[in-house]
């Protein structure tokens, strides 16, 4: 049994379209894979502890190194985990400097999936900055999918940071990554081979 950890983005959930498409694909095509899709806390101060607790309580995630799929903020968190524990990751429109973007999110929010109300405070910026992987030890362990019309993140930041990775840049699209399900066979092949 192989294990894959899927990390959703900020203001997202395991119920998101991408998370559900990933779950359906692995259930139909890879019955030997257990996909873990935790509901990440809306509070940035809780996310690192949540991820480290999950890895500690699920040692099978580290069999042959972590295998991660991370979308947006989940891509940023996947990079943080991979640089700590080793393994492979597929990043979809990953956030590169989310702490800069978070400045404009200071205030009260509601997660559209869980309806949980939460607040982003100034201190959260430093918490997220502390999770930054300043350098990447081996870019061959990353597959990065970017679309140029991402309205939330500048795809060029990720194209630069992950320039030596298995980089796929598609013209057009948006932050949700249009046509994501078409990439699932290649994502599975990259993580499982």
From TrEMBL:
Listed Gene3D superfamilies: alpha/beta hydrolase (3.40.50.1820)
Superkingdom, natural source: Bacteria
A Pfam family of this chain: UPF0227
InterPro entries according to UniProt: AB_hydrolase_fold, UPF0227/Esterase_YqiA
Name of this protein: Esterase
Native source organism of the sequence: Alteromonas mediterranea (strain DSM 17117 / CIP 110805 / LMG 28347 / Deep ecotype)
